[in-house]
Design brief:
By secondary structure, the protein is an alpha/beta fold. 42% of the residues lie in helices and 13% in strands. It has 18 helices and 14 strands. The protein has helices at residues 5-15, 32-50, 63-78, 109-114, 144-156, 162-180, 186-213, 232-240, 270-273, 285-288, 303-311, 336-350, 365-374, 387-392, 403-407, 421-426, 438-446, 464-475, and strands at 88-92, 96-99, 102-105, 119-123, 140-142, 220-223, 244-248, 279-282, 296-299, 326-330, 355-359, 394-399, 414-418, 433-435. The strands form three sheets. The chain has a seven-stranded parallel beta sheet. A five-stranded parallel beta sheet has the order 11-10-12-13-14. It has a two-stranded antiparallel sheet with strand order 2-3.
Length: 477
């Protein structure tokens, strides 16, 4: 069954719109729904209702992988003093760019450098198994081995929560039938139970490991994705230890975003709040209005966007035009095959005006390369490491929904939202031009003199560094 627009989101939130869904708990008192909700609401219900799929994202294991694992162990052993006496811990995914020929984490390194002597960064498992050195911020520790151990424990360890997990899955299945007219087979429900059980074990292991990395002097833990529901054990244990926790916004958030929005009946429930960060550091006031996070929101700004806008002043007007410029489609990580098809079609329709290329989401890049090869499709795939280099080359950017659409403001002439059932549901009120059919896209693109006149300050708070200093000093006095 395929549904449209926000009817989908409304029905999905109805599934959890009763506090009794929080009554199913682990042996250590964690509401299992918080661990399972994104997986069940987005990956299962939302995907089923809108008939989309995500490509499999698996890192490939080879000799290089094991060599890097050994380097990671060696690095952590010989740099364990990095954590000593640090009051601020930044926990982040490994999102690289290059600054002055050195690796730079675009999410957190600028924050790390503000209080450099008092900050340690823990980076999540190495992205694409790439050794991220030399780098701008050297006070870095890795969680790679912890995650591997957690994964092993989740597959082979015993699970004392299985009865409660099973009861929750049955409850949600009944609600899905009632609210969304979706039913699941016995085999599907068993796969849900297995996935959730593994997730709880691995995240519990990660949370205990993170707590062990803190010292008595630790006061603040800032995590990229800290408000993800399945980060519940991390926030719970750190807050019990008296450490303040904060999520650092690292991508778009919309009013339909399932990760950060909750139904009214549970959004302020104590069992929800207990496992969410004390603070949410957002890009600015625009974003604060997009989600009902129950704790304090602070408009920080976007440090990396600020860096790029100050250091790379460019507009399409002074970088040439016409066939020397690009239309770039940005993948979302979902519906990859449809993006490839749209790129191919645009190549045939507007090549008189522009060159066309596709920039995959980082999580789907390998899938794209294999898909193109297997299906003998020839399109231009963007290879820039730095997304702002891609924006610098583009006159038009297109996506269903992506943070890049907002980062393009003030850089790219035209910003177009491809309105599919997916984007209508997940990005219901875009501040950009929209199209639904190929003819609409061609018509918009053909008007080469038109520009998207939006003010970047509408999306990004100014003076992020002062904002961050004020926030930190309020906690660390």
């Amino acid at each position: 069954m395929k549904m449209i627009e926000n009817d989908v989101i409304n029905k999905i939130f109805c599934v959890e719109d009763n506090p009794e869904i929080l009554d199913f708990k682990t042996i250590d008192g964690i509401p299992i729904w918080m661990m399972a909700r994104y997986y069940l609401l987005y990956n299962i219900l939302f995907a089923r209702m809108l008939d989309f799929h995500s490509p499999t994202r698996l890192r490939k294991l080879n000799f290089t992988t094991f060599f890097l694992l050994l380097k990671t162990i060696k690095h952590n052993v010989f740099h364990c003093d990095l954590k000593k006496d640090k009051e601020i811990i930044l926990y982040t995914t490994n999102r690289k760019t290059i600054v002055d020929s050195k690796f730079f984490n675009r999410y957190t390194d600028q924050l790390a450098l503000v209080f450099q002597e008092n900050t340690v960064t823990i980076e999540q498992a190495l992205l694409n198994w790439e050794w991220p050195f030399p780098r701008v911020n050297n006070c870095v520790y890795f969680d790679t081995i912890c995650r591997i151990v957690g994964e092993i424990k989740s597959r082979f360890g015993s699970n004392k929560d299985i009865v409660q997990i099973t009861a929750l899955v049955e409850y949600v299945s009944n609600k899905a039938q009632e609210e969304c007219n979706i039913s699941f087979s016995k085999e599907e429900k068993q796969s849900f139970i297995s996935y959730i059980a593994k997730l709880i074990i691995s995240m519990r292991h990660l949370a205990n490991w993170i707590v062990k990395q803190t010292t008595p002097k630790a006061k603040l833990f800032v995590m990229v994705g800290g408000a993800y529901p399945f980060s519940y054990p991390i926030n719970m244990l750190l807050k019990e230890k008296g450490i303040k926790t904060a999520d650092l916004q690292h991508g778009y958030i919309t009013k339909s975003n399932i990760m950060y929005n909750y139904s009214k009946s549970i959004s302020n429930h104590p069992d929800v709040i207990r496992g969410l960060p004390d603070y949410f550091l957002t890009y600015g006031d625009y974003w604060n209005d997009q989600f009902n996070f129950p704790n304090e929101k602070i408009s920080l700004g976007n440090p990396y966007n600020d860096y790029c806008m100050k250091n790379v002043r460019f507009t399409s007007a002074n970088n040439g035009s016409g066939k020397n410029r690009y239309i770039t489609l940005f993948g979302t990580g979902e519906n990859t095959d449809k993006y490839i098809l749209l790129t191919s079609l645009l190549q045939k329709q507007v090549s008189n005006f522009y060159k066309i290329k596709f920039r995959p989401h980082p999580g789907e890049k390998q899938f794209v390369l294999e898909y193109l090869l297997d299906n003998s499709i020839e399109i231009d795939v963007d290879t820039n490491t730095e997304v702002y280099d891609t924006l610098k080359e583009s006159d038009v950017v297109i996506s269903e929904i992506s943070t890049v659409l907002f980062e393009a403001v003030g850089i790219v002439k035209r910003i177009l939202v491809w309105q599919t059932d997916y984007s209508k549901a997940y990005f219901p009120d875009p501040p950009f031009e929209t199209f639904t059919e190929m003819d609409d896209a061609v018509r918009l693109i053909s008007d080469v003199n038109k520009s998207s006149n939006l003010d970047p300050n509408y999306f990004w708070a100014s003076e992020w560094k002062d904002n961050y200093k004020y926030f930190v000093r309020k906690i660390i006095k």
